């Protein structure tokens, strides 16, 4: 083998060795901190037995059913219990309830999530109900369509990586039953009240995260100056995905 040929072989072997080392390092990083964020499931798709529009309805039924004290996920901050009221293979991450309709809210939340749980959460959402927005489903859908015209500059990062094309995740939920409301309840409405709701918003559904530490951050603004609405928010969830919750 001539000298030129030997040089080519040595260079090829170096490339193979370097590529192998990079693969090992990437594998170690994945095992340590989890793989890159899983893809957010496409909007309007069906997953885990329901559509986005149906999961949005379930999210609000979960939120309305919980007692409206300081432990409610709308009110909690810092270290919190994300297991409250959760059932099945999809868990909800709550949207903050403070500061509305004109103000700023910035929060960090920390909690444990069991391995194997998908996560469904609103980037921004509102709810129209027969308690204050009309008497029929048509009234509520009209309310939801009206709210959808508000201006929503939004951002979402999962493990530090931007989720693109958020505008495609705007939905209006299917109509859903509310109540009977607990005592206390999150809006201070009459105990035992029952009615209907419809929710417009931007929602995301993520497949289960790998074991370890993860972050989900969503921020933005709801801006409708004609109606006195100018609400800015920034919420960071620090999630510890674990085999068993303490």
Oligomer description: single chain
Termini separation comes to 65 Å
Question: For the report, how would you describe the main beta sheet?
Answer: 6 strands, mixed
H-E order: HEEHEEEEEHEEEEEEEE
Side-by-side strand order of the widest sheet: 3-5-15-14-8-9
Tell me, briefly, the overall form: globular
Tell me what you see in this structure:
The structure is a single chain. The chain has three helices and 15 strands. It has helices at 3-33, 52-65, 137-148; strands spanning 46-47, 50-51, 78-79, 90-92, 102-114, 118-125, 128-129, 154-158, 161-162, 170-172, 176-178, 195-198, 200-206, 212-224, 229-242. The model is unreliable at 1-35 (pLDDT under 50). It is globular. The N and C termini lie far apart (65 Å). The chain has 246 residues and is α+β, with helices and mostly antiparallel strands.
Task: For the structure shown, list the relevant keywords.
3 helices, six-stranded mixed β-sheet, alpha+beta, disordered N terminus, 23% helix, 246 residues
List the helices and strands and how they pair.
Elements: H1 3-33, E1 46-47, E2 50-51, H2 52-65, E3 78-79, E4 90-92, E5 102-114, E6 118-125, E7 128-129, H3 137-148, E8 154-158, E9 161-162, E10 170-172, E11 176-178, E12 195-198, E13 200-206, E14 212-224, E15 229-242
Parallel strand pairs: 3-5, 4-6, 5-15
Antiparallel strand pairs: 1-2, 6-13, 7-12, 8-9, 8-14, 10-13, 11-12, 14-15
Write a brief caption for the model:
The protein is an alpha+beta fold. The protein is built from three helices and 15 strands.
């Amino acid at each position: 083998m001539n000298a030129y040929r030997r040089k080519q072989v040595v260079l090829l072997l170096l490339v193979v060795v370097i590529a192998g080392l990079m693969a090992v390092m990437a594998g170690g990083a994945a095992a340590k901190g989890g793989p890159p964020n899983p893809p957010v499931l496409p909007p309007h798709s069906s997953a885990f037995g329901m559509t986005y529009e149906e999961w949005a309805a379930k999210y609000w039924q979960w939120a309305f059913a919980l007692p409206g004290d300081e432990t409610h996920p709308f009110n909690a901050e810092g270290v919190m219990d994300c297991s409250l009221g959760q059932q099945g293979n999809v868990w909800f991450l709550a949207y903050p309830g403070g500061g509305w309709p004109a103000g700023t809210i910035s929060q960090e939340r920390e909690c444990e999530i069991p391995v194997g749980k998908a996560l469904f959460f609103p980037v921004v959402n509102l709810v129209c109900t027969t308690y204050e927005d009309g008497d029929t489903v048509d009234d509520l859908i009209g309310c939801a369509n009206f709210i959808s015209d508000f201006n929503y500059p939004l951002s979402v990062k999962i493990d530090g990586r931007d989720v693109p094309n958020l505008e495609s995740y705007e939905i209006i939920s299917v109509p859903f039953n509310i109540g009977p409301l607990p005592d206390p309840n999150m809006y201070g409405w009459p105990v035992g009240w029952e009615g209907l709701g419809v929710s417009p918003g931007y929602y995301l559904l993520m497949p289960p995260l790998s074991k370890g530490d993860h972050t989900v951050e969503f921020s933005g603004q709801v801006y409708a100056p004609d109606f006195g609405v100018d609400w800015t928010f920034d919420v960071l969830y620090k999630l510890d995905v674990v085999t068993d919750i303490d």
